[in-house]
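Two entries, shown back to back:
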Amino acid sequence: MMRRKVMLLAPVFLAACATGQGNKTAPQASDTVRVESWLRAAKLENVPFTQTWPNGSTGGGVLTYHAGYLHLNYTVPHSMDLEASGTHAVFKDSQTGSETRMGLAHNPLGVLMGNPITLSGPVTVTDIQKPPGILQISLARTENPSQGLVTLIFRDAVRVLDLYEIRILDERQRTLFIRLGGV
């Protein structure tokens, strides 16, 4: 009987380990609070960025972000625009004249669109890495982590966070890189 109970609970324990829901250490909880606070207070305006798509092609422009809102205004390879807020995003390509609307409920980017943003409940912190001078935190949707992962990489100097890279891993295991600070 005891063996059966252990076998029934095994998937729950494995899932908790895989999603980082096991016992968090005080430093991990502290880092999560720091990143959540940074995201809630962030007011990035026209920050230069470069982007590498999963196929290796690159582009760039300027990024604006605050809780619940993201705007990527591309100038390279040509004029394009991605504007996301709340639960939807609109992508406009001036070269083709196309406009694509998409829901963010099943898109990894949606984890950054909360207002106020929370790194608990609907968002799960799946991993925290701290090489010297860096804080890297990975986020997924709690209800369906297989939909993708967003990893934020900060410079961490004297406990001051400076976001410099966003990695978005989609459900097909393709990674898109956005590096802040230069086109």
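entry 2 starts here
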Amino acid sequence: MKQAGENSNSLKMVFRNRPENEKIVRTTAAVFASVLDPTLEEISDFKTAVSEAVTNAIIHAYPKTGGDIEAYFKREDKKITVLITDYGIGIKDVGKSMQPLYSTLHTQERSGMGFTFMEAFADEVKVKSVPGKGTIVKLIKIIGKGEECGENL
């Protein structure tokens, strides 16, 4: 019999806005979710959503200086909440930035699809940003949503 709180846990990471750290956070996300025995599709979706949030922070938060980014993971039963927080330049127009193909960087390396991918691969995405103070991206992923359907067959 499971005890209260048995399926809850949290983890906080602080890292510099270096591209190599995206891989570390992505791997940590997969390991953190693995306790819930996700399907390969669920783990892939979750890693992709986290990767996009972290990549956005690494690329956009501190365009001229380095800075810290925080990744906070919280698991409650089958629900995983992730907060990716930076203290960089912030986003002037969150609504506009969440539109597909919108990017403040006009290079061929950026597609402007970061938030679109997050919305496609997470169950919920919320963004709070204050120009000059930073951005928080909240991702929620429910593991095992399809199990209820399979039980009725």
